[in-house]
Design a protein that fits this description.
This protein has 29 helices and twelve strands. By secondary structure, the protein is α/β, with parallel strands linked by helices. It folds into six domains: 195 residues, Rossmann fold; 88 residues; 78 residues, Winged helix-like DNA-binding domain superfamily/Winged helix DNA-binding domain (Arc Repressor Mutant, subunit A); 94 residues, no CATH class; 97 residues, Tetratricopeptide repeat domain (Serine Threonine Protein Phosphatase 5, Tetratricopeptide repeat), CATH 1.25.40.10; 90 residues, Serine Threonine Protein Phosphatase 5, Tetratricopeptide repeat, CATH 1.25.40.10. It starts with a strand and ends in an 11-residue tail after the last helix.
């Protein structure tokens, strides 16, 4: 808005014109001839844009903001009120929340002096300067051009004076400033009186300002679905394609702007556009931020496009920060700890932490609260990652740097995984407190990096086969322990051709053994027989009798699970003989336990119980975890033969051992079988208690139904 004003002969000199091009008001603003102020004080206009249509969720954030805007109850200590900063990634819904709160506060009568809204255009090409903002606000406060001082310092003084007068009259004002970019934009606009309230939005956190920050993240899934439902109200696709709508909200990262754009695209193609078609376009496209560009503008006149929003934030970064951001985006990790981020960027850890802090302040990365292990983690919103990847794809140097960074990260993970794998429960459990602490720390590290470790094996580059095979083998024990069978199978399938390409038969044998074990445990026992047979053959060729026996043991398990317990019994007996020849009592105990499983599967419960007794003896002094497994199986076999009291004793001891370790599936299984034995013995109160404990353990393991029988 640009309004020319002639100099008034008898009034104060103001200059040639009033330039309000950068001031954005929604509501009546007087720009006519100046007039004396009413005796009662200046008239403040209520200049709020319309309330956001289809606002969903944010209940907690809205409640917090309204508590901050509520009039004091008379007991509050006097003093300036801190401004509220609503911050977050561009498109996350900051303005909508601020406007929703402002409308609620105005409708409640909390601001009799009025509510002013000014877009400071911080992320446009020409931001509103503090001086121009003050001049614009003075006009909104009823100060005409004839009364506007010519010097900026005097204008600022008049602005504070007007607000002070309103405060003295008991007329509170809410000042809402949208799109603050620089910290320097805000201080000149803050009222001197603590009676008034200030809310501003920004894509960046401003630690230098004494504000109360309300940082927004993505919507929760249910609120995302509600936003789409509101935007497509009455559209029969909501019901016909409910699953696709849910997937669409995920692909939009539960980001309000992305969801609004998706809804606009669906409205635009109402006659022919299936929700599934947009889902497929977003899923298969290399640049979803390019796909998420809708026709027209939103209710506030802003373009329906994501890429320009992210570009404005990226432009604010220094070259070094922008490069780090693009590198982090190109490494397909779910999130990062600081050490891994340092490996990605190639910077020292302390410098990397500075970079991450800056990116977090820009809300381009999100800092997670440190977990129990005290390690901070950082993650990128999926759409931000996609945008930064597309941006980097146009720069050959960044593409090459990302390839090198992936190799560094894979080697970094390989070293850590190999060290942590040493402290997992197998092959021999050390019950000392130090060993238990090391094992728990190793499990915690694997838990935190699980998705990243699997991804590092599966990254599509066909280089570094040795590192990928080594990482796959280091991961196997953890994936087995946590029962992540799909990941275990995927890792094994990826590593097998790499091991063969290396020409390393020992590595290929180990990979085949792990892949077969994963397939057998993951419900594809028939497919497991080929890689396990291959593993036994390769172990024999390289002169590794222990590996060969272990492959036989796993092959027997696959045969039993495929429905041939007789063949499984012969294979386990062969494995047990090999381990006896080697004097390997630990592996002999495993084979003996598996012989019991094969006998039990064939209906020979009494013989199975005798086999489990031998397994318990072999494991008692060598491995407490497998001792617990054998006791649990013994308890089941005793129950199956009607020796209920003996079964209860064995199962109770097995349960005590299993509770010592973070294996909730096994704990729930044993507890379920103990429940059956207690019910059979007529000990209903104890059975109910065991049932409750088993249900809790199964829930913690993610098992939806209690499974009776052996550990499959």
């Amino acid at each position: 808005m640009h309004t020319a004003q002639s100099e008034s002969p008898g009034g104060p000199r103001y200059g040639d014109h009033v330039d309000l091009r950068d001031g954005r008001f929604y509501g009546p603003v007087s720009l006519g001839a100046s007039h004396p102020q009413p005796a009662g004080g200046p008239e403040v206009l209520s200049a709020l844009p319309a309330a956001p249509v289809g606002f969903t969720g944010r209940e907690a954030e809205l409640a917090a903001l309204l508590r901050g805007l509520r009039p004091p109850d008379g007991t509050a200590a006097p003093g300036p009120a801190r401004p509220w900063a609503v911050t977050g990634l561009g498109g996350i819904g900051k303005t909508a929340l601020a406007l929703r709160a402002a409308h609620a506060a105005r409708d409640a009568g909390w601001f009799s002096g009025g509510v002013l809204f000014l877009d400071l255009a911080g992320y446009d090409d020409a931001a509103v300067s503090p001086a121009r903002a003050v001049a614009s606000l003075l006009y909104a406060l009823g100060v005409g051009s004839a009364h506007l001082p010519s010097e900026e310092v005097d204008q600022h003084a008049l602005y504070l004076s007007r607000l002070a007068t309103l405060a003295d009259q008991g007329r509170r004002v809410l000042l809402l400033f949208d799109n603050v970019r620089e910290p320097g934009q805000l201080p000149p606009l803050l009222p001197g009186s603590g009676a008034h309230r200030v809310v501003f939005t920004s894509r960046e956190s401003h630690p230098s300002l004494p504000v109360r920050e309300l940082s927004l993240g993505p919507l929760c899934p249910s609120d995302s679905s509600a936003l789409i439902a509101e935007a497509l109200h009455g559209d029969d696709r909501l019901e016909r394609e409910a699953d696709s709508v849910g997937e669409l909200t995920v692909l939009c990262g539960h980001m309000p702007l992305a969801l609004q754009i998706a809804a606009a695209l669906l409205r635009h193609h109402r006659s022919r556009g299936r929700v599934a078609s947009l889902v497929e376009e977003l899923r298969s496209g290399h640049r979803p931020t390019g796909t998420l560009r809708g026709p027209g503008v939103d209710q506030y006149g802003r373009p329906l496009a994501l890429a320009p929003v992210f570009e404005a934030s990226m432009r604010r970064l220094t070259a070094g920060r922008a490069r780090a951001m693009c590198l982090l985006a190109q490494i397909a990790c779910a999130d990062y700890d600081t050490d891994t981020a340092a490996v990605v960027t190639g910077l020292p850890a302390s410098e990397t932490l500075d970079v991450l802090d800056d990116l977090a302040c820009a809300h381009l990365v999100t800092r997670d609260q440190p977990g129990d292990e005290g390690r901070e983690r950082w993650h990128l919103h999926g759409l931000v990652r996609s945008y930064a990847c597309a941006r980097a794809a146009t720069d050959p140097e960044l593409v090459a740097a990302a390839r090198t960074a992936r190799a560094r990260v894979r080697r970094h993970y390989g070293r850590q995984a190999a060290e942590c794998a040493r402290h997992m429960p197998s092959p021999v459990h050390d019950p000392s407190p130090d060993a238990v602490r090391r094992r728990e720390a190793a499990l915690a590290w694997f838990d935190g990096e699980h998705a990243n470790l699997v991804a590092a094996v599966l990254w599509p580059e066909d280089d570094e086969p040795e590192a990928r095979v080594g990482l796959a083998l280091s991961l196997a024990g953890y994936l087995r322990w946590r029962r992540f069978f799909e990941d275990w199978i995927a890792v094994g399938r990826a590593a097998r051709p790499l091991a063969r390409r290396l020409g390393d038969e020992r590595a290929e044998a180990a990979v085949c053994n792990q892949l077969g074990s994963a397939l057998s445990r993951g419900g594809a026992a028939g497919e497991a027989i080929e890689p396990l047979t291959r593993a036994a053959h390769l172990f024999r060729r390289v002169g590794d009798p222990t590996g060969e026996g272990m492959a036989w043991n796993n092959l027997g398990l696959a045969q039993r699970r495929s429905g041939d317990p007789g063949l499984a019994l012969a294979t386990h007996t062969r494995a047990r003989g090999r381990f006896r020849e080697l004097g390997d009592r630990w592996n002999e105990g495993r084979a003996q336990h598996n012989i019991g499983l094969a006998l039990d599967a064939g209906g020979h419960h009494a013989e199975a119980a005798a086999a489990f007794v031998l397994a318990c003896e072999l494991h008692r002094d060598h491995d407490r975890i497998y001792h617990g497994d054998s006791l649990s199986s013994l308890g089941w076999a005793l129950y199956a033969t009607g020796r209920t009291d003996e079964a209860i004793v064995a199962l109770q001891e097995a349960l005590r051992i299993r509770r010592e370790y973070d294996n909730w599936y096994a704990t729930g299984l044993t507890g379920s079988n103990l429940t059956l034995a207690l019910e059979a013995a007529g000990r209903s109160a104890e059975a109910a208690e065991a049932r409750a404990a088993a249900d809790e353990a199964c829930a913690r393991a993610g098992t939806r139904a209690i499974v009776y029988g052996h550990h499959h």
